Amino acid sequence: MSHPVDAAPDGLPPPPGLALVRLAAPLVPRDRRGDWLAEWAGELAWARDDAARRGEPAALTHLRLAWRALGALSDALWLRRRHGASDMLSLDVKYAARSLRRRPGFTAVVVLTLALGIGATTAIFSVVNGILLRPLAFPHPEQLVFLRGVPTDGDVEKVSPGTSYPDYLDYRAQTSSFSQLAATRGLEVTLTARGLEPSRVRASLITPNFLATLGITPVLGRDLVDGDDDPGAAAVTVVSHQFWQQRLGGTAAALGRVVTIDGIPTTVVGVMPPDVRLLGDTQLWLPLTVGELELIRGKHTLSVVGRLKPGVTRAAAEADARAVARRLELAYPSDNVKRTVTVEPLRETIVDDTRPALLVLLGAVTMVLLVGCANLASLFLARASARERETAVRTALGAGRGRLVRQWLTESLLLTLGGGAAGLLVAWGGMRALLGAVPRTIPRADEVALDGPVLLFLLLVSVVVGLAFGVLPVLQLRRGDPSLTALRDGGRGATAAAGGRRLRQALVVLEMAVATVLVVGAVLLLGSFRRLVDADPGFRPDGVAVMHLQLPAARYDSTTKVVRFYEQLRDAVAAIPGVQDVAVSYEHPLSEGWTSSYVIEGQPQPRPGTEPEARVRPVMPGYFRTMGVPLVAGRDIAEADRMGAPGAVVVNEAFVRRHFPGGDAVGRRLHRMAWWPGQPETWTIVGVVRDEPFEGLGSAGQPATYFSFAQFPFNEMWLSVRAEPAVLASLVPALRERVWRLDRDLPVEQVATMRELMGQSVATPRFNAALLALFALAALLLAAVGVYGVLSYTVAQRTGEIGVRLALGAGRGRVVRQVVGQGLAVALAGVALGVGGALALGRVLASLVVGVSWRDPLLLGGVAAALTAVALVAAWLPAWRASRIQPAVALRGE
Amino acid sequence: MPVRLTRPTTLVLFALSRGVRHGFDVLDATGLPSGTVYPILRRCEDAGLVRSRWESVRVARDEGRPPRRYYELTGAGADTLRAALERYPDARAALDAPVGVPPHPRPA
Known about the structure:
The complex is a heterodimer. Chain A is of the alpha+beta class. Chain B has 6 helices and 2 strands. Chain B has helices at residues 7-17, 23-30, 34-46, 57-62, 75-87, 91-94; strands spanning 50-54, 69-73. In chain B, strands 1-2 form a two-stranded antiparallel sheet. In chain B, helix 1 (7-17) packs across helix 5 (75-87). Classes of the chains: A alpha+beta, B mainly alpha. The A-B interface holds A 1, 3, 5, 7-9, 12, 35, 38-39, 41-43, 45-47, 49, 68-75, 78-79, 82 and B 22-24, 27, 33-39, 42-43, 46, 53-54, 57, 60-61, 63-69.
């Protein structure tokens, strides 16, 4: 029952307070507003009449009624809360859900697009955030810097990034920008304990202030202190949380325990907090004892970490440090020639190598999201046009614009939140898969989690996308008077649709372009990866296993002992049934090792400090045969090449290319300083071998010198064994047993086959290529959906017109050709744009791609053709549907 | 949604039970502000404790004013009021002598 409010009798002015009530009226839900206004008007009018009857002063009545009318605001707000928004919202949601259910195809495509777009973005963003963006988990991480040694003239080979101990002391004394400077060096140590298999663990030698510089305090016990590093001090160590838990029982009783490290009894004085992961899997922190070796100024092997004083910029600190570096270069030309330093954020030092790959992936995933969003925009636009008539009818029936806007927004928000939720699942699964596949070479991977900021990012993307596309149809609605045009149009939507169609076509062109860029990138990476895998590695990996060994210097303190051990081990292993070949070498074909300098006899003498460097790789006789590295000239190292005999060295082809372009290397001699008593200082080149890929499969050969092991014995060596591939794995227990028969305190780490090592060496490129390929595929699919969507919509809009043309005798083939032609035009425009983009972006990829030109016209042409073909298939479906239009049905629809 | 039996709600229901019918009359009878009374009336109506009608247009026109809405207690409302008065026995006294407003024109 309701009463119109203007049922008030004429003549009288409106009662006091009614103006206030009218002001509050819009708050009341529309369906109750009339009644509500009537009730307040009735009461106010009656109250005025009553007051007049009682002879109340008019001013008092005004005040009293105005006061009461204020209550109308509470009343209206209450009604709105109770009956307004929430009911309308649930109605909106119900209506939206129904309308989405009625178009399951549209809904599924939108939700899937979003799930892929948002999900993939979030997964990658999580990883990038965890590895690149998140600050290190130390107090004031922005103050932490790394002092990197760099050459003044760009010749990286001569200047290692490290710093020598004397230089470190000078930096400490002469700079003023750092509140702390500390130094560290990583190494592997042998840990022995009664009743346990000896094991190798990662350790760091640190200056006593190192942990304090980073801001780490032990959770138990004490930090290292000055004096712990005195050569005569008692050996102490701080252990990792994990080490404490797993080996020391995880109780306070662990403090004071003695562990044997490289044969030296060492007291545990402190335990690190659990979450210190920056330093890899370091288990022990030992004081850097300043011995004879540390005092060599040219031994630049320490990593120097500093903490900037508050307010000091990195640039200022660098200028400060460089001034010191210049003084050192002048004072010690033989050790510090052309050496200076940069001061870089510690975080960058840690993630340096993975940065380009991660940024490329982030770029790729952003592109996928972009394609996804373009697709959504296109879908929503098409839908808005298709619903123009519905909108017009609803407007004509009295639906307010605000009401329609809310309806649209509800629908798109519902869709995007659904897509966001699905995206969350994709992100979670994707991140887990990604981290599962992450090569071990990526640092900080264990810090990655689908965390707060990432979730926030996901929600933000989801809501922005939802609102943006909710608003699109409204923008269309505002153009002209939709109700009239659309109704008159009879649903053909010819007018408003023209602009919309152009916009949608532009979006699809953009999608095709982005997809092209991604596919080109993926093909480049895949091609580069294939080349890596297919390339001749330079050795025969099948049937070869390698085992790493390190003889503790405390017990193996002479070259004789070292040589004897390895020769006995070789003979013992050779006797194992099934073993075809066995050799001992420093490093294996896929390992970089390190370089040392030398001088070639009979060639111009280089200035001090500019001597050439080559890899140092002592080998036993038979190494090249075992590994399958072809000998191209001369002979192998022989048993006779021992201490006391003339020095014998085999070099590789890269070495020959560098020094003997004529090729006559065998018989030439080189000189280097002796490291052990009795070691030759002059070495004759006795043979030349093919290059091994030290820097990973597919890398260019690096000059190497393979000295005779008996003349160049390291405590740390690799044992390589060749056997029938089928029996290789079964040899492992026998190998360990032979080692322990010789020395039961020697740790034997995992034995790896060369095939496994090759797999690890290409893990990172494989991971990058696979990811980019997935993204490219996603983008391509989305773009195809985009082409399909636009053409389907066009065909649906033109059903009538096509019907007329068919009725007038146009051939069906002609209709197909016309629709496909339209799709082709859009696709070609996109592909052309994409090829341009790929050429522009190629430089970014160049850092990831080995041996493939990103400007290869054949490759670009192939990708363009493939993408056009995909677009044609996507276009053909709606075209075929257009050709099946029955003229009679289409015309009836008019 | 059940109505919370507050003291103001008890006062409003009690006033209705005593024959006070219109919104502004309830305000006068209970002394409560309009911002309190009206939401209580709405809530009680939603809960079925109170029903509202409009007085006859004819009567209102005769008096030269727009028609007024009036409220009355339902059976459920009367039951609720009994329970509410047990909780707030002082409500009876708070609503002293009903204001001297005669029940206004009968419904049509």
